[in-house]
Specification:
39% strand; alpha+beta; RNA Polymerase Alpha Subunit, Chain A, domain 2; 6-stranded mixed barrel; 4-stranded mixed beta sheet; 13 strands; disordered C terminus
């Protein structure tokens, strides 16, 4: 998984006045948990843009006065009116420590049911998984190509040795639903035609032809 670096400074004071002063200066007060003691720090709000305002997921390297910490974003608070970032919490981890992340799910291919007029609906845009940060993917690929109308793709279809899925096995990622533009599945239609033709005895056609000839006479 990709990582971004945040350069910040440790906070000496954590009172309301100092916190307000930081925000007025364009800084975001933050706390890093997971170590022996919480680490209070701040960083420019613009430095968090590539972490917060993106559909992608990243781990973070927090650089505080020359000392680096590997971390993941745990919580974030926004101003109710301006949407400015008010506060952020991070959780420190080691390279040997498994972490829990919500990874985006990307569809691959065009579902067979969509080609026949169905609609692909996603039930799960992000999957909660657990694993080593070095092995977690930037996104999880879900191959929807074989899905027919009415079919569902479950989380078990994207299992991997690199992470553990933290959803029940019957959790649906996406499904192809019917729509007004539905058309018959070409392969099923061909198979049905072959079966129907095989069910009609040759003698039956001959009998009908003979009866028609008799009537004409």
């Amino acid at each position: 998984m990709k990582s971004i670096t945040i350069n910040g400074s440790k906070r000496e004071s954590v009172g309301k006045k100092s916190t307000k002063a930081l925000r007025n200066a364009g800084e975001v007060p933050c706390v890093l948990y997971g170590g022996d003691t919480p680490v209070h720090f701040s960083a420019p709000e613009v430095s968090f843009n590539s972490l917060v305002y993106t559909p992608d997921v990243h781990t973070v390297v927090i650089d505080l006065d020359g000392k680096s910490y590997n971390a993941v974003l745990q919580d974030i608070q926004f101003h109710p009116v301006t949407d400015a970032i008010l506060h952020m919490d991070f959780y420190e981890f080691t390279e040997e420590q498994e972490i829990t992340m919500e990874i985006p799910v990307h569809a691959e291919g065009v579902a067979r049911g969509v080609k026949n007029g169905g609609v692909l609906r996603f039930n799960l845009r992000r999957m909660k998984v657990r694993g080593l940060a070095s092995k977690l993917p930037d996104y999880i690929i879900a191959d929807v190509t074989p899905l027919k109308i009415g079919n569902k793709l479950y989380v078990t279809a994207v299992e991997s040795e690199d992470y553990t899925i933290l959803h029940p096995d019957n959790t649906v990622i996406c499904q192809v639903k019917t729509s007004r533009n539905i058309i018959a599945d070409e392969e099923e239609e061909e198979e049905g035609a072959e079966v129907a033709a095989g069910d009609v005895p040759a003698t039956e056609v001959s009998d009908e032809g003979a009866a028609a000839a008799s009537n004409d006479a």
